[in-house]
Amino acid sequence: MSQPKITVVGSINMDLVTESNKRPEAGETILGDRFSMIPGGKGANQAVSAARLGGAVTMIGCVGDDVFGRELIENLKKEGIDTSKVKTLADRETGIAAITLAEGDNSIIVVPGANAALTEASITEYEEAIAQSDAVLLQLEIPLSTVVKAAEMAHHHKVKVILNPAPIQKLPDELIHYADVITPNEHEYEQLMKDYEGDPEDLKQKLVITKGGEGTVFFEDGKDIHVPGYKVNVVDTTGAGDSFNGALAVRLAKGESLKASCRYANAVGALAVTKLGAQAGMPTDKEVAKMLYQE
Question: Which residues of the sequence carry a binding annotation for substrate (predicted)?
């Protein structure tokens, strides 16, 4: 397969990023070092990652009829992403994420805006695009009922479903059933296992747990399979998970094994954290190949 077809159903935000050398306490005002407006949203981030890594990507989402919305659509187009299924809504503002970078990590407040208007009806409208995909990539910054509908539709058409369960919330049993791969980080993994009422071993068979620089873990035949990560100079961890998920979707859609796909995606996530900005730091396939070749 030369260019896998990836459909991303998810959020499109403008990230409002403030950098400082410390995190303010409650009630405290401090001076920051830098402010930036950067295209983001977990859905859009994952779409950009997949596109840069060779996927033919279609984005399904919503933005407001405002300057942020217009900029975000243009940004996706520049990445070669099909935006014909991104709706512009006159009665909603574009979603934003207020991000604070301090002390080597990030804190984020997301205001969904138009993302909350991505409905089940929208997904039904775009069934053909989903049916023609090799993989559908989902997250949880849009209404949960919409995520379930997209997963159900993809599952019905025998399209691989990759679910990034972030921001974490209790997942309906049907969503877990429809998902082929679920990609929590360590915190999300603990919450998923706590919330799940079925046999935990059944859930584990679908999980790929991301552990930052330590790499990833998945479960096979009752064993934990660890795929090592990469040591790099960390500049900004924003979007690292999104980079990983876009990469995983592309490689699985190409028919690669889970272990090989994780190894590739680990390299993508590592390269992503060496630059500032969720999307700006996302590598190309050529950059990833160079990193893997140097091992």
Answer: 13-15, 41-45, 141, 242
| Residue 173 labelled as part of a binding site | no
pLDDT in the model for residue 107: 84
The enclosing domain of 241 has a CATH number of 3.40.1190.20
Residue 233 assigned ligand-binding role: no
| pTM higher than 0.70 | yes
DSSP designation for 222: T
What pLDDT was estimated at residue 294?
67
**Each residue of 56-84: b (16+ CB within 10 Å) or e?**
bbbbbbbbbebebbeebbebbeebebbbe
The pLDDT, as a whole number, for residue 246 is: 97
Residue 242, token pair as written in the block? 């999104």
Q: What is the C-alpha separation between 9 and 57, in angstroms, rounded?
A: 11
Is 41 labelled a binding residue?
A: yes
Identify whether 167 is preceded by a cis peptide bond (ω within 30 of 0).
Answer: yes
Q: List pLDDT tens digits, range 60-92.
A: 999 999 999 999 999 999 999 999 999 999 999
Angle formed at CA 181 by CA 166 and CA 56, multiple of 5 degrees: 85
With a cut of 70, list the residues of the chain below it in pLDDT.
Answer: 1, 294-295
Is 286 labelled as part of a ligand binding site? no
Q: How many structural domains is the chain composed of?
A: 1
> Which residue range is the domain that position 18 belongs to?
5-23+32-293
Say whether 64 counts as a known binding-site residue. Answer: no
Among the listed residues 82, 195, 242, 285, the single catalytic one is 242
